[in-house]
């Protein structure tokens, strides 16, 4: 163990999470040959192979799998040591990555984020608003907003807010169809829904709740692009009210008959939830939710 370099554990964890040499090297800010040497040096120091080099990327060996837990424990200790120093500073510093669904991140959080970054200039915020789930265990985010409560993992989940959704279409599309007066009139319309194998959470499977007669004519992978297609007259679909209400090219359809409700959950990891910067971002989001009130989400 005389040649063991603690910094090489960071290289090991990044490679284990990324799975590909070029991706991991980019995340660490080094070239791929440097990263490869660091992995090889760690393997030599420990006396065991940690990865199998395959055409699809780097795959953990059984020895590598066993090392993951200890390496993450050291990573967590390093984060806590840094947090202790940060807590004693006059202002918050460091980076917080927030992973959110694209609608929440774009239409709620992004327009308000200046209140956080302006108050803490030493804090770097990374807002990742994508249609996907985020693994906090793999450090894909420091905190995440999810549409469902996680069923496993060393994470804490707290419901942020319930929000309502309804049917929307463009007047230009509705003018080409018969009057839609009741739920039975929804069959035979051009529906816009999600690409099934890219539906990252079952909470997005709205249409079976509305009618069994629905046939999807256009499938789109994310809700923002769905809204653009609806505004362009491509058909009828489901949108959250907090997104659709300010889109002048859309009207709500059957508001008294079709109303769906979903929830957003705030998820933090057990190892990092007590970091001062993570706590402050969590507090900020909760403050903003209280400020806008329930009407923002439900009407």
UniProtKB/TrEMBL annotation:
Residues 4-61 form the HTH lysR-type domain. It comes from Herbaspirillum chlorophenolicum. The keyword DNA-binding applies. Belongs to the LysR transcriptional regulatory family. This is LysR family transcriptional regulator. InterPro entries: LysR-type_TF_proteobact-type, LysR_HTH_N, LysR_subst-bd, WH-like_DNA-bd_sf, WH_DNA-bd_sf. Keywords: DNA-binding, Transcription, Transcription regulation. It comes from the Bacteria. Pfam families: HTH_1, LysR_substrate.
């Amino acid at each position: 163990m005389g040649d063991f370099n603690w910094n090489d554990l960071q290289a090991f964890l990044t490679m284990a999470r990324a799975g590909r040499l070029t991706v991991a090297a980019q995340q660490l800010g080094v070239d791929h040959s440097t990263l490869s040497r660091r992995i090889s040096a760690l393997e030599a120091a420990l006396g065991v192979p940690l990865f199998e080099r395959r055409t699809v990327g780097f795959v953990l060996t059984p020895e590598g799998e066993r090392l993951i837990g200890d390496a993450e424990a050291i990573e967590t200790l390093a984060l806590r040591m840094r947090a202790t120093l940060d807590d004693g500073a006059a202002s918050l510093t460091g980076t917080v990555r927030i992973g959110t669904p694209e609608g929440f991140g774009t239409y709620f959080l992004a327009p308000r984020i200046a209140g956080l970054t302006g108050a803490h200039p030493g804090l770097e915020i990374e807002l990742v608003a994508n249609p996907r789930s985020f693994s906090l265990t793999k450090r894909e985010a420091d905190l995440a907003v999810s549409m469902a409560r996680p069923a496993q993992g060393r994470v804490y989940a707290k419901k942020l807010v319930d929000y309502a959704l309804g049917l929307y279409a463009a007047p230009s599309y509705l003018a080409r169809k018969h009057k839609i007066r009741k739920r039975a009139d929804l069959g035979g319309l051009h529906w816009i829904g999600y690409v099934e194998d890219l539906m990252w959470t079952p909470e997005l499977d709205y249409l079976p709740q509305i009618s069994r007669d629905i046939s999807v004519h256009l499938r789109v992978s994310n809700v923002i692009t769905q809204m653009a297609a609806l505004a362009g007259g491509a058909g009828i679909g489901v949108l959250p009210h907090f997104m659709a209400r300010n889109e002048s090219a859309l009207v709500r359809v059957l508001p008294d008959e079709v109303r769906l409700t979903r929830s957003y959950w705030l998820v933090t990891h057990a190892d990092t939830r007590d970091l001062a910067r993570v706590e402050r971002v969590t507090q900020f989001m909760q403050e903003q939710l209280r400020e806008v009130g329930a009407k923002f989400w439900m009407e």
